[in-house]
User: What shape does this take?
Amino acid sequence: MTADKILAHLEEVFCPEDLGRALRGAEMSKAKILKNAYIAIKDGKILEVGEGDAYKRLTNAATELVDLKGFVATPGLIDAHTHLVYGGSRENEFSMKLNGMEYLEILAAGGGILSTLKATKKASFDELYAKTRGLLEHMVVHGVTAVEAKSGYGTDLETEVKELEVLDKLGKDMPVELIKTFMAAHVIPKGYENNPDTYVDEVIEMMPTIAQKKLAEFCDVFCESGVFTAEQSFRILTEAKKHGFKLRIHSDEIKNIGGVQVAHDLQAVSAEHLMVVDDEEIRLLAEANVIGNLLPGTTFSLMKDTYAPARKMLDAGMAITLCTDSNPGSCPTANLQFIMQLGCLMMRLTPIEVFNAVTINAAYSVDRAKTMGSFHTGKDANITVFDAKTLDYVLYFFATNLAKEVYIKGSLAVKDRQLV
Ligand code: NIG
Ligand code: FE
Assistant: This one.
């Protein structure tokens, strides 16, 4: 077999295990790290990874050889939780937050997600497309090759569909893979404060349309004090399951109101945030194999000290990922590398645990492990090359974009830190 392209002489290559499910607990502290390594690509897929000169037998005169001495590589990073499509921005709330106003207080006063609803309804398809494309481009430049993204700034069917169609078109127009989540249950819209269950009914009524148009693969709910109760979340997700959606739930971001039990009982693929979970809930998540999508950038941006207890989660045998949560309110960023660094600095995860979190485990979290998340033969050749001589350096040297090259399905998407 001859390779089309070989990335050769890499100082280190991170090779996660793929056990057919997300890595749990102590499994997350293991990975193969190849030295003086190569990655051979054929037809946009991984042909082989290995060390030293062994790649030479895979070459002929037509093989493109890329010398990456002085750099390291990982499977293309995957961001398994974002809210990318929205109108406007919320820097007007920044000084309120700095003056001590809480996220949920801003929301209760009609700001927060509610203000982004207005801006998103007003924005045209083309405006949303251009803005979301810009965010995605930042993400790819920072090493990301697949992104989960949610609706949820519409709350009416028309705007929810508009958001998901924007994502759909971006997924077709850009090399980055997009995984879409329907999240009309993101906020109780104005006018439903006294009858939130009527809005729950409306969310459920939107599901057949979203499912028929194949506009989303997952359904998510913001289970939070002042937003959706655990009972309402259970109802919404139970209906979503009937329509064939895979499930996620925003739980325990600020208050603990029982979202974990819902994730456990409905066997959600993932539970998001988990900043204020207790030990028994960690046990429940581990028992039900619910992946914890942890979002330390949100804790950072909300200026809290309640980082999700990632070490406890691993001790209990849970699987975790790290994601940006990119959104205009609680985490305005497009830099997954910084989130990974917070995983080390604020959650005490090791570099190997962090790289497993954003590669193989994130691939399971978005249900794409058959095609991405590791360097096993036959998976898409999604590769992030970092300007670093060791993998540890990528997490140690923080808040600076170190992604030098990004390959998606074997083609260069980023070269010398610029989009191709
Ligand atoms: O995950 N918590 C709900 N959704 C986002 C915030 C959305 C917003 O503030 O616009 C989150 O933190
Ligand atoms: Fe979120």
Q: What stands out?
A: Residues 64 and 358 are 28 Å apart (CA to CA). Residues 125-141 form the longest helix (17 residues).
